[in-house]
Amino acid sequence: MSKTNKTSQVANIQLSLERFEGNPILKPDDKHRWETKAVFNPAAIYESGKVHILYRAIGESDISVLGYASSLDGLHIHERLDNPVYIPREPFEGVNPSRPYASEVADIYVSGGGGMGGCEDPRLTKIGEREYLTYVAYDGHSHPRVALSSIHIDDFLNRTWNWQKPVLISPPHIVDKNACLLPEKINGKFVIFHRVFPNILIDFVDDLDFDGKTRWLVGQFKIPTRALSSDWDNLKVGCGPPPIKTKDGWLLIYHAVSRDDESRYKIGAMLLDLKDPTKVLARTRSPILEPIASYENQGLKVGIVYPCGAVVINDRLFVYYGGADMVVCVASVKLEHFLDQLATNHRETNPESIKTSPQTKINELQRPIQGFCTKCRRTREIKNPRLVVLKNLRHTIQGVCPWCGGKISRFIKSKPNIDENTD
Fold first, then answer.
1. Residue 393 pLDDT more than 60?
2. How confident is the model at residue 388 (pLDDT cuts 50, 70, 90)?
3. Inter-residue contact 298 to 271 (CB < 8 Å)
4. Cα–Cα distance between 201 and 188 in angstroms, integer?
5. For residue 420, pLDDT beyond 50
6. Cβ neighbour number for residue 75 with a 10 Å cutoff
7. What share of the chain is helix, strand, coil (3-state, %, to 5)?
8. Which of 418, 356, 93 lies closest to 217 in space, CA to CA?
9. Average model confidence (pLDDT) for the chain?
10. What are the distances in angstroms from CA 386 to CA 69, 174, 371?
11. Which regions of 188-259 does DSSP assign to beta strands (E)?
């Protein structure tokens, strides 16, 4: 075999995570009214010899709350609390009955059930003596936004849930999700990853003292979707768990969707530069986990693997994810082998930082896109908007009417910055 052929074979080696045969490790519990319908999208940290899992739960109220479970080996659940450990406390986390539109709950931004709003899709990051919680705050009507809270590590371990008052850190009128913190400062600044469709955005901030009124994330840098039609992550990408520091770089597990398979979420991996996490050193050319198991296709949303937590135990990487927006699952791999393959065979050719232009910073993105629904015969906000080029080369934004479910569209002159309204 020629040297060229050998190189080609090595480059095509596909990395993959190994599903735990006991999946799902958490299911909805009929004994607890707050988690009867779904438990999914789990954050995870490894502290004091156990994995602590904070998972999103939906019950009879249709409000998303966060539950707690733990595992000694990373696979089997040995404890699960009877009550939620984080519940909505602010108007931006749940529908306010005093609002005139409260009786007309819009499903345009509903993600994985929980139509009445709440606290969704948590991530946990330990920095110093505090555990920082980032999550999606949804009030049941407005654009989902990124919220931040924290708790002292001693309180967390002692299950004294003294969470700091939550605050919104992403701007109004923009769908922003998938936020997490880097566990270390870079050049004296905190690093926050988040996602405004279709890219991962990165901000460097001096402190985490957001006031929820005047100061927001702006999206200084981005990790974009891939460009080729054959790429598996060419429609949208989002951060999964907070990046993990390794000898080869920051390991970022992410989820992505492709244009030719846009209903299915898949998982990939990146290596980011240790000194400049805006630079992507390596990126998997194919998914490391796809939704093919039954528990990833039977739930509130078919074909979903959605990672929010990851830990390392004895040189093994454990990735915790939601299956079909219904259950909590885990997959793992030997970390050293995974990193060697990722760093060697999936290296990016141009690991450069990509700054966002002033026109694409999230505080300047356009407002929700309106279109005319021929069935309702009214102008409505377009749900799940996507750009479509017609045969006559005219550009149009097409989607779904949030009221009647019919097709809704709008002709445009050029490609806009389109908000994406799903996970």
1. no
2. low
3. no
4. 19
5. no
6. 16
7. 10, 40, 50
8. 356
9. 87
10. 38, 16, 12
11. 190-196, 199-205, 221-223, 236-239, 244-246, 249-257
With a cut of 60, say whether residue 198 has pLDDT above it.
Answer: yes
44 beta partners: 53
User: Regarding the domain delimited by 10-360, which CATH topology (the fold level of the hierarchy) does it fall under?
Assistant: Tachylectin-2; Chain A (2.115.10)
Q: Which residues pair with 332 in a beta bridge?
A: 18, 318
CB atoms under 10 Å from CB of 381, counted, come to: 20
Q: Residue 60: what pLDDT?
A: 94
Residue 137 has which token pair? Answer: 């705050």
Nearest to 405 by CA among 62, 106, 103: 106
How far apart are alpha carbons 195 and 211 in whole angstroms? 21
The pLDDT of residue 376 is: 73
Give the rounded percent of residues in the chain with a pLDDT score beyond 70.
83
Which residue, among 247, 242, 221, 225, has the nearest Cα to 234 in the 3D structure? Answer: 225
Torsion, Cα 180 184 187 192, to 10 degrees, reads: 0
Give the Cα-Cα-Cα angle 185, 188, 192 (nearest 5 degrees): 45
Phi/psi of residue 125, nearest 5 degrees: -140, 125
pLDDT in tens, 262-309: 889 999 999 999 999 999 999 999 999 999 999 999 999 999 999 999
pLDDT value of residue 103:
35
- Name residue 364's amino acid: E
Eight-class DSSP state of 345 = H
**Mean pLDDT (whole number) for 12-40:** 93
Instruction: Assess contact for 237 and 253: CB atoms under 8 A.
Output: no
CATH of 366-412, one of 2.20.25, 3.40.1350, 2.60.40, 1.10.357: 2.20.25
Give the domain ranges of the chain: 10-360, 366-412
**Contact call for residues 119 and 134 (beta carbons, < 8 A):** no
Beta bridge pairs of residue 55: 67
pLDDT tens sequence across 81-106: 999 999 999 999 985 544 433 334 44
Q: Residue 207 burial (CB < 10 Å; 0-12/13-18/19+)?
A: exposed
Q: Where are the beta strands (DSSP E) in 153-210?
A: 167-168, 177-181, 190-196, 199-205
